[in-house]
């Protein structure tokens, strides 16, 4: 099988499960060495024990698919731990070609059913203030810190920086979660601003949107909560990142907000079941109300 990213080194933050795990697998099947970070090395995260997945499992699957998976425990709220990850990659490989900022503490509240998981769409003054910290400390700030400490290696490799975001950042519509909207918007703006700094060094920085992803957490939702007719596997987003990483002309996209389903049509890749999901960009932009 063709391994277009053989010899490349990637870091996927928050790779124990969900979208991060899928991104790691997509890079692994393309032949990359993939460092995956998170807090769950073995078993389950005690804060969200109902959601399966661990770093070891992700890394093993990356290797099985043809890459090299390297699990590294890291709490991305601790800058020293993030620096240690970057130092380890530098010592072991001397390069970093792809950074995927995926780590995201913003959804943990959805799994604390007795605390606030049922209150996602309540008015902002009725929600716990800690929701803001979940979104920003273990999300936006974590993405900024990882980008800052990894930037020198990305510059040396003329690499790729990807912020995993979502359509919620485009425009706030009605009764939606305000910290979530602001955090995703911040991720988009961060990628755009970082692109201005990185472009002269040949580094591409983008924000990347999935559609509805069949993550472990989403699949735990009550029956009927989601319509999966136009959904994606987590690995589909990984294939989008791999396609970008392998594109010698990717710098022309720097600073943009990209959608995995649209990239599938452009690059010709499919989801793991052979399907190509439809982009829902228009549903979030053209029909949005102020």
**What can be said about the biggest beta sheet?**
7 strands, parallel
Q: Structural class, from helix and strand content? A: alpha/beta
Measured distance between first and last alpha carbons? 48 Å
Q: What's the mean pLDDT score?
A: 89
The sequence of SSEs as H and E is EHEHEHEHEHEEEHEHH
Proportion of residues in extended strands = 5-15%
- Spatial strand sequence of the major β-sheet: 3-2-1-4-5-6-9
- How much helix, percentage-wise, in residues? 25-40%
Low-confidence region ranges: none
CATH superfamily: NAD(P)-binding Rossmann-like Domain
Name the CATH class: Alpha Beta
Tell me the CATH topology.
Rossmann fold
| Rg (C-alpha, Å) | 18 Å
- Under the CATH scheme, which architecture would be assigned? 3-Layer(aba) Sandwich
Structural domain tally: 1
Please report the number of helical segments: 8
How would you sum up the global shape? globular
Could you please describe the fold and organization of this structure?
Strands 3-2-1-4-5-6-9 form a 7-stranded parallel sheet, sandwiched between helices. It has 8 helices and 9 strands. 38% of the residues lie in helices and 13% in strands. The chain has a single domain, classed as Rossmann fold (3-Layer(aba) Sandwich). Helix 1 links the parallel strand 1 (9-12) and strand 2. By secondary structure, it is an alpha/beta fold. The mean pLDDT is 89.
What would you say about this model in short?
The chain has 290 residues and is an alpha/beta fold. The chain is built from 8 helices and 9 strands. The strands form 2 sheets. It has a 7-stranded parallel sheet with strand order 3-2-1-4-5-6-9, sandwiched between helices. Strands 7-8 form a two-stranded parallel ribbon.
């Amino acid at each position: 099988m063709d391994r277009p990213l053989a010899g490349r080194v990637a870091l996927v933050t928050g790779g124990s499960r969900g979208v991060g795990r899928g991104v790691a697998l997509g890079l692994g099947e393309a032949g990359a060495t993939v460092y995956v970070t998170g807090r769950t090395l073995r078993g389950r995260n005690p804060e969200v024990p109902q959601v399966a997945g661990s770093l070891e499992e992700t890394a093993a699957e990356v290797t099985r698919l043809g890459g090299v998976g390297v699990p590294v425990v890291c709490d991305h709220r601790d800058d020293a731990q993030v620096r240690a990850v970057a130092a380890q990659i530098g010592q072991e490989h001397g390069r970093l070609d792809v950074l995927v900022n995926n780590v995201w503490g913003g959804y943990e509240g959805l799994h604390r059913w007795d605390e606030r998981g049922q209150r996602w769409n309540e008015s902002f003054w009725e929600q716990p203030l800690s929701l803001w910290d979940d979104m920003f400390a273990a999300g936006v700030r974590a993405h900024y810190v990882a980008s800052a400490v990894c930037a020198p290696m990305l510059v040396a490799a003329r690499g790729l920086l990807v912020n995993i975001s979502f359509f919620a950042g485009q425009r706030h519509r009605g009764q939606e979660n305000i910290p979530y909207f602001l955090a995703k918007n911040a991720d988009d703006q961060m990628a755009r601003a970082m692109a201005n700094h990185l472009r002269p060094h040949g580094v591409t920085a983008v924000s990347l949107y999935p559609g509805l992803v069949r993550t472990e957490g989403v699949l735990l939702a009550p029956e009927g909560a989601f319509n999966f007719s136009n959904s994606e596997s987590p690995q589909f987003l990984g294939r989008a990142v791999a396609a970008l990483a392998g594109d010698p002309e990717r710098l022309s996209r720097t600073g943009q907000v990209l959608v995995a389903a649209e990239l599938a049509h452009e690059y010709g890749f499919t989801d793991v079941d052979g399907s190509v999901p439809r982009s829902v960009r228009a549903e979030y932009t053209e029909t949005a109300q102020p």
